[in-house]
Design a protein that fits this description.
The chain is α+β, with helices and mostly antiparallel strands. The protein has one domain (about 15-195): NADH Oxidase (3-Layer(aba) Sandwich), CATH 3.40.109. Helices cover about 40% and strands about 15% of the residues. The termini are close together.
Length: about 220
Amino acid sequence: MYSEDAKTMARLIKERVSIRSYLPDPVSKEDLDLVLEAGRRSPSGENAQPWKFIVVQDEKSRQIIGDLARIGSGRRFTGEFINKTMEHRFEGLDDPVKKKAVFDKLTSGSVSAFLAEAPLLIVVIGDKGVWDTPFDCSAAIENMLLQAQALQLGACWVNAITMDIRDELILKDLLAIPEKYKTLSVLALGYPTKMRGPRKRLTMEEIVCDEKFGKAYVPGGSIDV
């Protein structure tokens, strides 16, 4: 029998989704503090805690960050199209109108431009001198996403702005980020315009191996909560 805490955590993980459309309502200071505290309490190799979190609410700064995310995503997906590696994204999508809409959303970069509309952004940066920085910061980001879900806030983890050094340098200049730090991600945070259900996940049998690769793991019972 699962404890209530275990059931609550399982539900949060199961129900968490990436939100890309936000109401203009501001996030309360109390809720923001809980999200940041979740990041602060995250595990890190040798307890290095290499992260810094920059809270961005200024409208002009959010617009610049949204533009950078749009440019970064547009560059990435246009590259996929040129390299002929994009087709897998349209598997199961036969409607030509919908396919074009998805194509335009990706190659224009508008898929990530929503950062400008979120009322609050958290820019996650990490110390370049710490070996485990990318892993440590990823753990902090996941903690913050789960805390946001618990508060019924919408959130989304966006890397588009950090993939190209040209975009990163503009972001670092905008936020006065010292050279010793690498920008890892931007988290959008706010109240969603609407909630949707989680996307389909692979089964345990498809992703877990028992003892060695290729031998499927069989779950011991129901884990639905």
